[in-house]
Structures are given as C-alpha cells and as structure tokens.
Amino acid sequence: MSQEAVSAGDAQQAGWETIVNDWSADKATFRVPWGKAMMWIFLLSDTFIFTCFLTGYMNVRMSTTMPWPNPSEVFGLDVFGVSVPLLLIGIMTFDLITSSGTMALAVNFGYRRDRGRAAALMFLTAAFGAIFVGMQAFEWTKLITQEGIRPWGNPLGASQFGATFFMITGFHGLHVSAGVVYLSIVAMKVLRGDYEKKGYEIVEIAGLYWHFVDLVWVFIFAFFYLW
Amino acid sequence: MAADGQQHPLKIYFYIWGLLFLFSAASYGTDFLPHGNFRQGLILLFMILKAGFIVGIFMHMAWERLALIYAILGPPIVLLVLIGLMAIEGDYTELKRLDFFSPALVPAGHHAEHGAEAAH
Asked: Looking at the structure, do residues A4 and A42 belong to the same domain, yes or no?
C-alpha cells in the first residue's frame, strides 16, 4: 500500500477503528520514534510507583488516630517577622512550572534545528531543576534540625508524617536530580551537533521526562502540602 | 506528522505557560481557605487542570494517535481501584485503632457497651 493510500485511509477512520488498525497492522504499533514510545512506557511505570506512594500516604493519614501536623504551618517561612504559610513550597512550585515552560520551548527550537537556542534553554531548565533541589535540601534541613521531624516520629503529631514526607519528596527529588544530569548531558550533545543527522526527537524525549517530574509535583503539592 | 516531529507555533506554549502560572497561583491561594469540601474541591480542580495542560500540550499528548493515548492513559485507571480499596481499608483501620488502642480517645463506658452488645 502506498503512503497516500495509508493517509487517505486514516482520514476516514475515527476513534476505535484507528486503534484497532494500529494495533493489528503487521508493523510497529506506535507511529513515533521508538525512544519516545519507550519513554512514555517508562513514565507509565513511574506513574504506578508514585501513585503507590501517594496511596500509601493516604492510607496512613486516614488510619492514624494522632493529629496530622498542619503542612501550612510546618512549611511556612518567616519573612521580615511575618509568617507566610507554605511560602517555600509555593516558590518551588513556580520554579518547576517555569522550568517546564523553558523545556517546552527547547523542544520547539530543537525541531527548528536551532541547536544553540535549544541547548541554552535546556541548560536553563536544568538550572531551574538544580535550584529546586537546592530549595528542597533547605526544606529538609529546616525540618530535621529545627522541627525535629524524623521518619519514625516527630513532636508535632502523627509519626507517619515524617515517614511519608521523606519517602515521597525524597523520591521526587531524586527524579529531579536525575533529570538535571540527563538534561545537561543531552544539552551538551545538542550543542556539539551530535543530532544533526539523527534529528532532534531526543530533546522531546528528555522533555517528556522533565514534564513528568513537574506533573508528579502537581499531585504532591495538592495531596501532601495543601490537603 | 510523526516525521516532522511535534512542531507547533510558539504562541500556544506561552499561552499554556501563562495558564499554568495562573492555576499554580490559584492552587496556592486555596491554602488560605478554611478546611472543608469547598477547599478540597478547588485543590482537585486546579490539580486536574494543571495536569491536563501539562500532559496534553507540553507533553504533546493531544496531538498523538489514539493508539498511544489509550495505551498510556488507560492503564492508570486501575489505580483508582487501589485508591478506593486503600481508602476503605484506612477507615477500617482507624475505627479498629479507636476501639482497641486509644483508651484516652474513647468515652468512658464505650467498651462496656460493646460488651453488652456482644452478649445479646
């Protein structure tokens, strides 16, 4: 079948018909670069891991008979003597959203083969990621040294608070750290021109990972810090 | 489409970026509301809006073929079953703990009533 015939067939198909055809055709199911399909499948598995953590957190928070420490106060910061609730977490949220935007632009410039701008935006994204990890280190230090929060207990209430907090934000922070390294390596290779022949799908694939890290933070912010 | 990759006008990214900032600010704003169903509803609303725009536009899911969309977004639906089961389990565990492990939190005579019921 010629390429035109395939496209013409596509136009007539809708919904489930395209799915059945894509899955039953005697060729690759997903019409995307294999690296992109594999990244999506990896992110799917990561979704299950993070959901298991958050579900575990929900379960222990529901089942504990001790009062749950108020995140709004625990994560508040004093600014010139005025206590602002959740300030640090708010800044971290905006930092990640900003990095997601610069990443989306990097993908766009990559496909335009503007490799200077693509690499610069990727380095900028990695820098925002590094700032995020730095703020998280500050947050952890404050919680451990000033509030006395430990994975096995804390003076504010339910001991499960520390266990779930260090587990969930720690695993997320690990993802951000890995992302910073991953983005820096890919950005360096983009700048060097390693992808001039292969094409710049790699920027989009690295971007998928980065947006996912931001996505996970959206859920952690909602369920751990705001709930 | 796949051959050229995901090429879209820059305008749409700036627009979504702005929306994400707006929803983040609104999300942060819910922290100043009193605890309750209204606040939790807003938290969920802004969370879902942000997640949707990130996956749909920034991760380009809106422009992918259905075969990929369903393969990636379908499986997480089973997680709702896990969440539901663990919510039921959490409630049950709390009730049992109140019954057996926290005498200070249970009104005096509570256990005696249970004993009387058991005798029936």
From this structure: no
